[in-house]
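Obj.: predict assembly geometry.
Materials: sequence records (below).
Method: joint structure prediction, all chains together.
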Amino acid sequence: MAVFRRFIRQPSALAGALFLLVLAALALAAPWLTSSSPWEMNSRPMLPPFHDAAHWLGSDLLGRDLGSGLLYGARVSLAVGALASLATLVVGLIIGAIAGYFGGWLDGVLMRIAEFFQIIPQLVLAVILVAVLEPSLGTIVLAIALVAWPAVARLVRSEFLTLRQREFVQAARVLGQSPLGIITQQILPNALAPLLVVMTFVMATAILTEAALAFLGLSDPEAMSWGYMINASRGLLRDAWWMSFLPGLAIVLCVLAVNRVGEGLRVAFEPGRSR
Amino acid sequence: MTLLKVEHLRIALPDGADRSHALYDLSLQLRSGECLCVVGESGSGKSMLAKALLRQLPTPLTVESGRLVFRDEDLVNRGEAAMRELRGRDISMVFQEPMSALNPLLRVGEQIDETLRAHGVKSAGERRQRVVDLLGYVGLPDPERLRLAYPFELSGGQRQRVVIAMALAFDPALLIADEPTSALDVTTQAQILELLRKIQRDKGMALLLITHDFAVVEAIADRVLVLEKGRVVEQGGARQVLDEPRAPYTRQLLAAVSAQPREPRGVVSGAVVLKAEQLNKVFTTRAGWWGRRITRALDAVALQLREGETLGIVGESGSGKSTLGRCLVRLLRADSGHIQWLGQDVVGLSEGRLRPLRSEVQMIFQDPFASLNPRQTVGRIIMTGPLVQGRSKADAEARARALLELVGLPATAFERYPHEFSGGQRQRIGIARALAVEPKVLIADECVSALDALIQVQILELLESLQRRLKLSIVFITHDLRVAARLCDRIAVMQNGRVVEQGDTAGLFADAQHPYTRALLRCAAPEANAMSL
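Observations (raw structure tokens):
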């Protein structure tokens, strides 16, 4: 509870969290908020914002409603962010926990594998993976998780390495607790705080990576996404700037909000080292 | 001549602290060439006095009222720059932990040089000569070469000598030493105290020594001031306070640290519950690129423990006593040798095969703050053992509640978290956790060394009564011969991984054979003599 109170006492973190909650609610309610599908061409092309009450954020070069596109795009961005960070968490946690707790040759092998993934530029690897496997929500999440897990695994491993030496963990060993019990009941609850903070940053990166992939044309063809919207209108940047600016702004705000929440969590978890 | 006069010093604590002031109305006088020991337990406010004198109180705290008069000048009137001029030149400080008082990345000579330069010694040759002189003066061998050493290359005692040399750079009129020997082994402690005493006599310096340890007072003090929770309870000459303490609190403290060997309980003739033979353990660390440094932590150690008996294992840091404890509970694997728990050999068993046997031998850990999982309630912590040994939840809970009462904690502790308890209470929780699986043998590794003297006595009494009630056998590992003497039937003295002497407590105190045991006894002895007067 003290953590929660310290969290909401930070204006920027609170604003970020509220922004994400509102965005998530809007994204979920998209079918009821807009009358049209984001793909439907239902107005004059390149309509600027605030000119038509029915399409008050304007339209793109094919006459598709931008507001509707942004709402449906939020679905993709948030879904990819949440699912990719969850997948990263699961993989990173299992591998990091095994490497950190058992150590020895197992640790060596797992960390060399992690390094193998870390030496390849992340975006390049993600692009190749998505291009090889058909672009869809599943493959995008898979690609992001595959490039992001080594960082999480390394963090979990270093937390486990230090916590394993603590006296309460040794006491649990002396009591005869099994390795699985020690990992889940003794070590993990104490490693949760830094892990949660890192997860928010993984989520921010995932949203950016998804936007970059969509910008390169590697998005699910069924789903409207912010990166795709920028890609579709980049040729008309001088004539209709709002068509790329609005989705770009959405990406910036969303990633910023996730980052602020992460920063707020970090400060809330370690009150001693706040500023 | 009165050098330092503190009058009615009051330091307020922020709201929400356990009391309103760190110090209430403290007055003292200190003359040149005199040593005043300020004695108190942790939290008594004794360190705040030193910090107030140097105007280095931690941020929310300020001197609320009172005067600090140094050489007839009220220090309050000094500006920050003038205070800096004073620190390190007229008033110097020696800290508790020499490793953190020294910069690990600078050679020790450079660090002393820095002090000299800060106070305006311009000539490099002059500074260098002074550094060598100082290092030689504090009894360090080969100062010309040692000046170029890094702190990590020195032993704890040598580091503390360097810190003292740094404090002496300008022959200060007043030296403040805050627990200068608590981080050191007893034999090193004696040498450092002797050094401080000698310096003080040579230079006619005043020494304000802050300590929790009456052995230090005995060795060095002219006068003593006893603090209890921020209040002065007693002030007087060292002999008077030690021999005829007036305040009941002082009497309690003195009784707590007396080194009376326990009454022999007759021959303990139960079955052997724990036995070790020819135990060896070697640690190898890499030194440089190719070299390897080999430390023999255990060298052919043999011991046995009978039912209901307490065996003390005494030694200084690095003697291998903690490694022995860890090998005995199988947290570490010995390289060779045999360990038997209740007659069963456990050295060769795999971790999985060992787990069901683990309830027989339990451990109590040193640090009451690190040994409890901060994210579990006290109830959960105590229930862990019975649950993993296959008891039902209701059974484990009943057992945990019974144990809370047994170790003297309130029943409400069950739902609370460890951080809500004091060090002594936490150690009781640690004991309850170990007892929850009904062990036959307890291994206590320095389990009272992190506690204040009065709390130590309570925990020792608890262990003793539990032992009598539950017929426990205890291996009690400690660096403190006095503590071992109170509790143990037999004592094994360890040095460099070997048991150099083993015998029943009274016999060992009366007639020690090995020179190392005698050296340890000498360091604990002045106290014993004082008590017997």
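Conclusions so far: The CA atoms of residues 104 and 183 of chain A lie 17 Å apart.
To do: check interface contacts against the pulldown list.
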